[in-house]
Amino acid sequence: MIAIDYVTFDCARPYELAAFWREATGFEFSPGTGADDDEVLLCGTVNLLFIRVPEGKAVKNRVHLDVTGSEGSTRDREVERLLALGAAVQSDRRAPDGSGWVTMLDPEGNEFCVCRSQAEASGAAGAE
């Protein structure tokens, strides 16, 4: 068995991208993090590491995050909250029956999907 220590994002502006994901997730900056650091770590249920690289993103991510809202939130509320933080919708896959997901882009264009939580899918959370 292996342990996953970090999910790593190559990016142009580590601190700024980490700040977006900090607001999105509620994770905390590693102590001593500075705005000019080439590597920025967010500590949470999964550690997210942002590393400065010279090249820009050119193609679709081969790995992406699937996220759900915290307890009591819905997929649709999370999409709106993430839009307000600076994300963009790439593809809206929500279906009329409430199923589906929304593929979004973080401020540097990394894809991630906002899905319904288990509670929302089972009808335990208020659907919008």
Task: List descriptors.
128 residues; alpha/beta; Signal recognition particle alu RNA binding heterodimer, srp9/1; 2,3-Dihydroxybiphenyl 1,2-Dioxygenase, domain 1; 2 domains; 4-stranded mixed sheet; 3 helices; 21% helix; 27% strand; globular
Can you put this structure into words, describing what you see?
The protein folds into two domains: 1-56, Signal recognition particle alu RNA binding heterodimer, srp9/1 (2-Layer Sandwich), CATH 3.30.720.120; 57-128, 2,3-Dihydroxybiphenyl 1,2-Dioxygenase, domain 1, CATH 3.10.180. Helix content is 21%, strand content 27%. The chain contains three helices and eight strands; from the N terminus they run E-H-E-E-E-E-H-E-E-E-H. The protein has helices spanning 14-25, 75-85, 118-121, and strands spanning 7-11, 28-29, 39-43, 48-52, 65-67, 88-92, 101-105, 111-115. The strands form two sheets. Strands 1-4-3-2 form a four-stranded mixed sheet, covered by helices on one side. The chain has a four-stranded mixed sheet with strand order 5-8-7-6, covered by helices on one side. The longest helix is centred in the first third of the chain and has 12 residues, at 14-25. The mean pLDDT is 93.
